[in-house]
Design brief:
By secondary structure, the protein is an alpha+beta fold. It is built from nine helices and 16 strands.
């Protein structure tokens, strides 16, 4: 495996960053999880735009331009010979001293890229659906580091996921301070009821997922239904016809049991299954080419 760190490639065992990197000392940094399907990187521009916005929001100067980051991502996938891949792009504040002052990170940000094979949920979960719980951990408020920044501060999400695991569930829902549903520990959430599809708005405190946006487009174009963004309590999920989650790793996947309540028929419903199909068709037939791009040079 070849891992990119600040312009150079390293073997897995040699791919290391400093213990003085503020990404390690403070979780001071941002990341993206990106996928490649069939030798093409899915929605790369969207991920790069979110990265740029996250960097701007945390006063982080990217060490190279977005165009150069794009090239580095393509090169990392290519060097690893992957057609289907999960790509992890991380930008940390860089090497500083033991204090909080970001000005001490004089060498600038650390940027690394890992491209690996992906397997998240076994295929049977796409039929049977996931078991989900509501976490006791609340989504961070919009007046804190906004949930819209894909930051390395992931502890709340990790602890929420641990609660799910302890309860025998695969995912955890985070409510926001007002008790409305925001999202899951690493996925956005939708529900379908009486032919309509709903999802929490950005003001509920969500990470605006690339997959969420694609699914909203697919609902409009392929199902002829515009997704309604509204605030709702978890009670509305219990009575939904279908609940499904979206994210780069999971794609589109049903949640069929929430806090012990069976949702709909207790398996992936027709809307979810149709969306899974449309999503996969689209993901497998679009994206930034990894291999042709090199030939074209
Ligand atoms: C990354 C992420 C998502 C999903 O975003 P995608 O761009 O669709 O992968 C949802 N919630 C959180 C907290 C995330 O970090």
């Amino acid at each position: 495996m070849k891992i990119y760190i600040n312009g150079k490639f390293f073997e897995k065992d040699d791919a290391k960053i400093s213990v003085f990197d503020h990404g390690v000392l403070y979780g001071d940094g941002i990341f993206e999880g990106i996928r490649a399907y069939n030798g093409r990187i899915f929605r790369l521009e969207d991920h790069l735009q979110r990265l740029a916005e996250s960097a701007n929001a945390i006063l982080l100067k990217l060490p190279i331009t977005i165009k150069e980051i794009e090239k580095a991502i393509i090169e990392t996938v290519r060097l690893n010979g992957l057609k289907d891949a999960y790509i992890r792009l991380v930008v940390t504040r860089g090497v500083g001293d033991l204090g909080l002052d970001m000005r001490k990170c004089k060498g600038g940000a650390t940027l690394f890229i890992i491209a690996d094979r992906i397997e998240l949920y076994p295929e049977e979960f796409y039929e049977k659906g996931l078991t989900v719980i509501t976490s006791t951990i609340r989504q961070k408020g919009l007046d804190q580091v906004t949930p819209g920044v894909k930051s390395l501060n992931y502890l709340a999400n990790i602890l929420a996921r641990a609660e799910a695991t302890a309860a025998g569930a695969q995912e955890a829902i985070l409510l926001n301070a007002s008790g409305h549903v925001s999202e899951c520990s690493g996925d956005n959430l939708f529900y379908a009821k009486n032919g309509k599809i709903f999802t929490p708005p950005t003001s509920a405190g969500i990470l605006v997922g690339v997959t969420r946006n694609v699914v909203m487009e697919l609902c409009e174009k392929k199902l002829g239904t515009k997704v309604i963004e509204r605030n709702f309590p978890r009670y509305d999920l219990y009575g939904a016809d279908e609940v499904f989650l979206t994210g780069t790793g999971a794609e589109v996947i049903a949640a069929v049991k929430i806090d012990g309540r069976i949702i709909g028929k207790g398996v992936a419903g027709p809307t979810t299954k149709t969306l899974i199909k449309h999503f996969r068709d689209y993901a497998n037939s679009s994206g930034t080419p990894v291999y042709e791009a090199v030939k074209a040079k």
